[in-house]
Amino acid sequence: MAEITTDQAYSQITKLGAEPLWRHYGDLFHPEPRSAAVPHRWSFSDLRPYMLHFTETLSLEEAERRVLMLVNPGLADPPATVNSLFAGIQIIMPGETAQAHRHTANAFRFIIEGESAYTTVNGERVHMRPGDLLLTPGWHWHDHYHEGSGPMMWLDGLDFPLTNSFEAGFFELFGDRTQKSSVPDDFSSRVYIHGRLNPVWETPQTASSPVGNYPWSETERALAAIGDDVDGSESEGVVLEYTNPWTGGPVMPTIDCRILRLRPGFVGRPARTTASTILHAVRGRATVEVGDTTFDLEPKDILAVPGWARYRLDCASTSDDVVLFAYSNRPALRALELLREEALAD
Ligand code: GTQ
């Protein structure tokens, strides 16, 4: 090969489908993670009128789901909200059905507004109220129906960016628009919600929690029972994780869901984690620094916190407490031994 120049060797190996690692090494191996996602806030009150607009112009016969995707400016194609996770806001109007389907992506809904809708999950009608967390783990049939009045809106969380990156995304229509009820309404929540009293006649069918709905009333009770008797975590205040009653672990293999309560005057210690996180303000006004940006979260807003970004939470500007809902890809990172979390100096 002495007769060819080095430049020719580079172009020849490219034609042969090879590249020199030494010219790419620094792009592939970083001292620390570099998220393509950017810190970003979505204002619920800004988006809400457009949600309502589409209820007038788009029927649910025309759309699989009426959802506004919250697309991170750094993750437009394929769209994602943070690495491996998606957030969307879904709206369904009285009398509408969102047809039955299933997908390998894990999903949950956190209810923002409205009453008297339910999701049928594998034959069980699971009713929704604001603040409830409903699970539709991967490959569970689900359709939504609204039998009440007024718009019903919720935050959808899915891991399809992850399932698609693994090239393991499957999707299937049920056939009929809705499933028949084949299990008593809200049965899984009634059986499992007590947590420390599990049914012995059941055996786990999937790695995900069998609970259809973690009702807000129980979350409130848990927060009230703890009250102001603990400081909680230095960075995130009183943090409660929704758990799988079989394992005590996260609700789904790729997504964990938590409630954070920042007591009045809370000023959090900065921290970072390789987990990519999405925050949703349930009540109160929080200030959240992510990287170099400071966000004021109004109730119902949604915030993307990219992995390994420095973040700091506080509610010093209000005399009320703040409650946030948070979900992340922490369980997936933990399973792959990629989870690193640390507190930082102020
Ligand atoms: O409600 O089943 O936001 O399938 C995205 C995909 C919601 C749902 C989304 C979905 C759903």
Automatic annotation (TrEMBL):
Record-linked CDD domains = cupin_GDO-like_C, cupin_GDO-like_N
Q: Does the keyword Oxidoreductase apply?
A: yes
* One MF annotation (Gene Ontology) recorded for this entry: dioxygenase activity
Keywords for this protein: Dioxygenase, Oxidoreductase
| InterPro entries per UniProt | Cupin_2, GDO-like, RmlC-like_jellyroll, RmlC_Cupin_sf
Coiled-coil stretches noted in the UniProt entry, renumbered to this chain: none
| Cupin type-2 domain span | 89-156
Check the record and name the Gene3D superfamilies matching this protein: Jelly Rolls
Q: What is this protein called?
A: Gentisate 1,2-dioxygenase
Which species does this protein come from? Pseudonocardia halophobica
Where is the organism placed in the taxonomic lineage, from the top? Bacteria, Bacillati, Actinomycetota, Actinomycetes, Pseudonocardiales
- The gene name reads gtdA
